[in-house]
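Predict structure. Chain length: 472.
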Amino acid sequence: MKTGRKLGVGLVSAALVMSVVGCGNNGNNGNNETNTASPGTDATKAPATSSSKAEKVKIIYSMWGSAEEGNTTQSVADKFNASQDRIQVEVQAIPWESYMTKLNTLATADQLPDTGMLKEDGVIQWSSQGMLNDVSSMYEGSDSKPLDSLAYKYEGKTVAYAAANEILLLYYNKDMFDKANVPYPPSSLDKAWTWDEFVETAKKLTNDKKGKHPGDDGFDSQSIVQYGASVENLPWQLETWTLSNGGGFYANDGTEVRVGEDASIEAIQKVADLYLKDHVAPLSVGQTDDGIQRTIIAGTVAMATNGAWNVGTSLNTAKEAGLNYGVAVLPYMKDKVTLNTGGANVVFSQSKHPEEAMEWLKWYNSEENNWALISSGIWMPTLEKWYKDETLTHKWLENPNFPPYEEYKSAVVDYAQSSAARPASWFYTNNTTEFNTLLGSVLGDVWTGKTTAKDAISKNLDALKAAHTGNQ
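Prediction complete.
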């Protein structure tokens, strides 16, 4: 999800009535800690039976965060502890900077906690090393389960569910559209713009200092005062467009790299050409995840792509300051695509109490216990019922923090459960940190026009394949 330790994992203390977990970093965070773990000797131990009412089963839950954030999470766990007489949850807070190092150390010593947070890009790697339990049974017998696109899967087994749902959207400044007398982007998937329609609209909203647009006689691309569009080009978000163009970063099962295919390369070049040839987007080198702040909130760009979490992390404050923004579905090249993501809560295989750990996670991940994060717009619910039950949808969306109900429902709720919503690659394949880091480096000169996407990727394709296999 969001880059940056605080916003990425949802550790927003001011919003917390309960703890926050789940929207882990996106693999482009500048943190070079390795996700690998050494399997412990207890990985195959049978689950222990529940203790009697007189002695609760103790569950350790790890999270990254400060001691204060850990105390906030413990206050939530205390509510769970008081709600039943079988399980006692103790929270272990570890600073973000040393979180994965600490977990690796604990894994080697066969002292991992029972359950805890894990970065999106670490889930499949840890599972491949036998460090995570199968949690497929977590929602058996429940009235609802998480959306299918939020399940982390390894060798056909569900090894984690995202603690929150996030999808990629198109945000736009309604006042800029009104001033240019240009219709708003569609919030309905069946009316989604093609890529060409998106670019042509962006040209109408791009102005140089004389008020001319790209294609007009005398337009000066060196004196643009308002851009029409910005497409976030962080590597993990860039995957959206390769999929939309009929390509992708990987095969559907995650076993093969597809970023070198013509369709994938063409999609990446089209994103670069928004700046290089179409002159409708500002330069972005794909290194910082503050795109909405730099564009929509800064008032320099009319429409920009990014994740749903921006509603809660930045747009609410901007709205209070007078920003009149809207949300829409993404444009598409060949296929309509948006990506789902959300950080994981896992049950470690060294746990002697996996059933109790799953019971805690199921309670902890429920919308009722994370309502402050959902109502603020930082998180979206994970359970299907919040997307399908109109009563629950109204409870979620009739909220002054969000754009109008029908607009938000169509562009977010309906979109998230449509066929367009696909899981980001870290839900099903390994070594995405290494792959995305290398791809981001490879594409640096593409954004500035020093080379083409075809040349950059072709010359580095073997290295990208090696990064995917963990042999970089």
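Summary: Residues 5-165+342-383 form a domain with the D-Maltodextrin-Binding Protein; domain 2 fold (CATH 3.40.190.10).
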